[in-house]
Amino acid sequence: MAPQVSTGRIQQQVAAIASGFLGDWLEHRGNGLAAPMSVFAGDTELQVEKPEPEVPGRTLCLSIHGLMELESVWDFPSRPGYHYGSYLAEQLGDASALKLRFNTGRPIYRNGQELAALLESLVSNWPVPVQRLILIGHSMGGLLIRSACHYGLVNGHSWVTRNPDCVYIGSPHDGSWLAVGAHRAAGWLNRRSRDYLRVIGEVIDLRSEGIRNLSRGDVLEPGVEPQPLLPEARHYVISGLLLRGQQHPVNLLFGDALVQQASAEGAGQSGWQLAGCANFPGVDHIRLAHHTSVCQQLEDWLV
Amino acid sequence: MNKGNGDMHWWLGLVDLLAHGVQHSAVKLQRVHLSVAEESFRILETVPVTRPGARVVRVWHHGISRLSYGSVAMAGAAVTRITDGYLRERDDRNVNKS
Questions:
Q1: How many structural domains comprise chain A?
Q2: Å from B49 to nearest chain A CA?
Q3: Complex-level ipTM
Q4: A32, part of any domain
Q5: Measured distance CA(A132)–CA(A62) in Å, rounded
Q6: Does chain A have fewer CB atoms within 10 Å around its N or its C terminus?
Q7: Does residue A152 fall inside a structural domain?
Q8: Residues from chain B contacting residue A18 (CB–CB below 8 Å)
Q9: Contact A29 B12 (CB under 8 A)
């Protein structure tokens, strides 16, 4: 029997896609499709000022989705509610698996600022003292973690001092080839004399700030110098490849379909000290968010 | 926010987005349509036999196209005015509440 999809789920998916494309504009208009940042424990949304999870653990494991995605991207197919966070929480014991939902069309630095503040509030209001923090980000979610770490450090947040584990899964630290392509195509089309070509360029230019940030992996406010990784944290990188052959031209060109391996590993960033780095040939961008091999790797690193 | 309110806000948001989409798509489609047609008319106007007819057809074609696309864009704009009013009212209410 095909799994039933509720109207609420469809509404959330439509809102996630619309937010990804035009999230900054939707937010500016006060449009109901702009998803506000919220934290979930299972299917229950938590109030960060007074979180009341069913079983509060001393370790928080927060999973952060990517562009145009919902927190459901983490769920293993045919096993709703089972994801990396829930598995790690099970293995670690005394841990709570949380998921974040946010408007992916906003500039990454604004989501990063909000996430840093949300973590501060969540950690300080958590029913039991938080001893460990694990942040897992898929695609744009990974960039959001880097941004939040920076703003957490700048604002003197206490969660930063808890030596968080930051896992970046298929995150375009040096940009995504698709976002770069859209940027270049729009620029080229906008310089044409034919009006019908300029219109296509203008339509591409409608894309949100969040998507624009993905062309270079921008995680900070414009004008701020690139910052090193948070020294207090341990950083892990996971990348995927479309095909099994590591050196296959398709892999070299497209990586996991959206993010090339070098970008996912932050090859263009200077001074990165990674606690772990793993590549999974044959696992594409979306499957990276719910794959047994990746889950096993996370267990090896974090448990 | 209760579920009913959230649902209403979602539908209002969708209508707002679609109305904006209709309005701006009509304007952009008009530009594409006219600029593509312009290429054909330019060729027809270089041929002496078709030149007089092409000029007349061009004026009518462009006029009718502008009227059609303009009407659709105006309908979209009218809906966005209404949704804009609701969204502002909702914003004001939220500001007053907080």
A1: 1
A2: 27
A3: 0.84
A4: no
A5: 11
A6: N
A7: yes
A8: 17
A9: no
